[in-house]
Design brief:
The structure is a homodimer of 474-residue chains. In chain A, strand 15 and strand 16 form a beta hairpin. Chain A is globular. With 474 residues, the first copy, chain A, is an alpha+beta fold. The first copy, chain A, is built from 20 helices and 16 strands. In chain A, 45% of the residues lie in helices and 18% in strands. Chains A and B meet through helix 1, strand 1, strand 2, strand 3 and helix 5 of A and helix 1, strand 1, strand 2, strand 3 and helix 5 of B.
């Protein structure tokens, strides 16, 4: 039998683990400096915690877990009868359909748990369950895997990692400013130039209101969001089909091509209460950030639309700054996003808790850093040096020498047998050790070991103390 | 609705996460220094990878995942007919049983994936799948959650973490020695005194052979393993019931009370080939470790028996050294174990690959360290300082000051509103900040801020630069 990995999931090789941890560790530490406390929740949640939270489509993508143990006590006689009653139809096709429904029903009745679909619902559950211990505002970071039964394709996995920070229990806009700062610092530390955009749901509503198309707010914003891809020709066509007049479209084009924030503000009437609320809140966020010097591009973008069924205030999105990174291939779309939402915990009966949060798209960030060759700072999985014993009597010496190096935090390997020199060298080379130490009887007696630079092939005769100094500097 | 965590699983609070990461990070780093490369595999494996690997009992504890998508195409008509044919019996009880069997059958037919049960089988799968890329010997570390459908009880969870290192592809006993050194170093770094015991499967076989009871090797070792708990009276009774004579039991008692390794070796005849093989291999391991100074107790223990259906060579076990830690309550049993096994990858068709490995019982180690109050070195989740703005105009100043501290790696929080002083202090206190900085208009103008030591209540007037110095020293 040929074993396989589950479709849509991945093994992470040592080098991948080290590089992923470089991203995660950078973010975790930064989040901690900003007061976001780490939380971890179980992979499994009760299905009644998960279902109904992600829409019908989401529910269908939930991975359900078959209950363990005694099926008989789980399936009550009434249930069994109800399955029986489903089997009424006689035509062949319908019989199959009926049985399929029975099978599905039985299977569902035998599943009361599922794998978490995101980190937000488990977080809300945690907050509600621990409401008496938690002090609000509560800031948490969470980096864990989630599972979705989507059909796998390039860049879309059934197991992938989410990396979220959220504050709940305060509607202070200070947090919006803080989160923008964190995006900026995070990508600065990861050495990736990005563009951070901010918008506000109410401002999008206000734009629709400005052209008396409040009822078309959602399709309008979805269309505006495509501006980057299809340009004003495309967007204009779409809007016109939605019922926007030429004047409306001209107004929108003029508004959205205005880049100066003060001028944007002047384009909305004082009576447009949605717009004014959005403008005022963005203004406050900008005021907090006035003296902060962004390392990345940061801008208000009225075309930005995301999570409109979910976010109620500011919305954010981050993408690679292709002007800065200068790589046309790096078209990864969004590598982060978030916003303010009301009532996170309402789904579990605790109403009126406002929150704001952002995520980092770990898989995409990984891909981008790899493409741009930006993992120099990631710790390497491969060792610093390998000790090669030339005959059997040298193995013990090599083992003791390894301890000498390891104590000094040098990643050290010992070839475990006195195999042929060529075989040992081949192993050292294939694993990518930068240095090898060749240990023979003569070397042990003289105390002068042979250090080989694997890349250049150069050999040095050195004492173990001198080798330690040299390795410590690498 | 009152949300709940799945029975047998746990949320990890910020402090718990930090402490668990202290353990994991200590181990991960040590493993890396010793050349064990990190591997991560997906939570889900195909059921044909998992089933048949853990015995019948294990198979029943596997969490199976319901397939997503179209049930109809998954359940072929022949299958549906076979379910139908199961429904033959008419008596009520039997009808229920039949239906339960149908339900179970249907459910199983609808599951082709399961959650990983341990880290060993996924590791074996990885090695076989990547046999062309991997160089042997291959050393890997893996720290991930596993899931088992056991009935939850104190200290037994349905989701728990395993922490394993293994070398495959070499039968060199150097690795046995290396693993003993790693156990010693790991618990030394975690500041926990332990007793590390080693034994050999062949030596246990040799003991049975020495009293001509080879066929009773397994029940004999299971009985000897209880010596700690039930003493020689209990063990003697058990052995006598198994058919051991008084002379046999005397021989065993004499053998096992001999603590000197050289004397132990003399008690076996040269013809006892099992014993001689075990003695020779342990001898070689001890020789490698001759010049290594253990920080913990390390001993050969002929009563140690574990994983006899699995291990073929040396076996190891670690427990808290109650003499050192002096706590009679710390009776946690084994906090680590392992051994050499043949043919890890044989289950996936790659025969003859020997391996040796050890695990760390992360949950138990956590519990022990907590009980013994040994988490001093773990980083704290709580911040270093919180900034308290006394009126609305001070919030921006506080936000900028926070950035000043955060740039210097001080974990900093800002209270996000100009709430009443008492409310802010209560928050600062409940979250456990060691310091608060009170920021009013006067403080901003003078540049002298009020730093409050939360434990003592002492207040200092200091510049932000002086505060930074003071906080940096804590």
């Amino acid at each position: 039998m040929k074993p396989q990995v589950v479709q849509g999931t991945r093994d992470f090789s040592p080098q991948e683990v080290m590089r992923r941890n470089y991203i995660f560790d950078t973010l975790k530490h930064l989040f901690l400096i900003y007061g976001y406390q780490p939380l971890e929740t179980p992979a499994m949640e009760n299905l009644d915690t998960l279902t109904g939270k992600y829409g019908e489509e989401g529910d269908q993508l939930l991975f359900k877990i078959l209950n363990n143990g005694d099926f008989l006590t789980q399936l009550k006689p009434e249930k069994l009868d109800s399955y029986q009653n489903l089997e009424v139809d006689k035509s062949d096709r319908k019989k199959v359909l009926q049985k399929e429904r029975i099978a599905q029903q039985i299977a569902f009745d035998l599943c009361k748990r599922g794998l978490r679909f995101d980190l937000t619902v488990p977080f809300a559950r945690y907050v509600v369950m621990n409401r008496n211990e938690i002090s609000l505002p509560f800031k948490r970071q969470q980096i864990q895997a989630v599972w979705r039964g989507d059909s796998p394709q390039k860049g879309r996995y059934r197991e992938f990692y989410q990396c979220d920070i959220d504050v709940v229990g305060s509607d202070s806009l200070l947090y919006e400013a803080e989160l923008m700062q964190i995006y900026d610092q995070a990508f600065y530390q990861l050495n990736l130039g990005v563009k951070i955009r901010i918008n506000h749901r109410k401002l999008l509503e206000g734009i629709a209101e400005a052209v008396q198309k409040k009822e078309l707010f959602v399709p309008m914003t979805i269309s505006l969001d495509k501006l980057d891809k299809i340009g004003w020709n495309g967007v204009g066509n779409e809007l016109s089909q939605l019922g926007f007049s030429t004047e409306d479209i001209d107004f929108l084009q003029n508004l959205l091509s205005t880049k100066n924030w003060e001028q944007i503000k002047l384009k909305f009437s004082k009576e447009n209460s949605s717009a004014q609320k959005g403008l005022k809140e963005i203004d406050e966020v900008l005021a907090y950030l006035k003296s902060y010097r962004f390392q990345n591009r940061f801008e208000v973008d009225l075309t930005l639309a995301r999570g409109l069924s979910y976010y109620t205030g500011c919305i954010f999105e981050v993408e690679v700054d292709t002007q800065l990174e200068g790589q046309s291939e790096v078209k990864m779309g969004s590598i982060g996003g978030g916003g303010r939402y009301d009532n996170l915990t309402g789904i579990f009966g605790w109403e009126g808790i406002s929150g704001v949060g952002i995520s980092f798209g770990a898989d995409r960030i990984y891909d981008v850093l790899l493409q741009l060759d930006k993992f120099q700072k990631a710790e390497k999985a491969v060792g610093d040096v390998i000790l090669l014993p030339m005959d059997k009597d040298c193995i013990s010496y090599a083992f003791e020498l390894a301890h000498f190096f390891r104590k000094a935090e040098i990643k050290t390997e010992v070839y475990p047998e006195a195999s042929k020199f060529q075989k040992q060298m081949k192993y050292a080379d294939k694993l990518g050790f930068p240095f090898a130490i060749i240990i023979g009887t003569e070397e042990i007696q003289s105390g002068l070991l042979t250090l080989k630079d694997m890349a250049s092939g150069t050999q040095y005769k050195m004492s173990k103390e001198d080798i330690l100094k040299k390795l410590g500097l690498n």
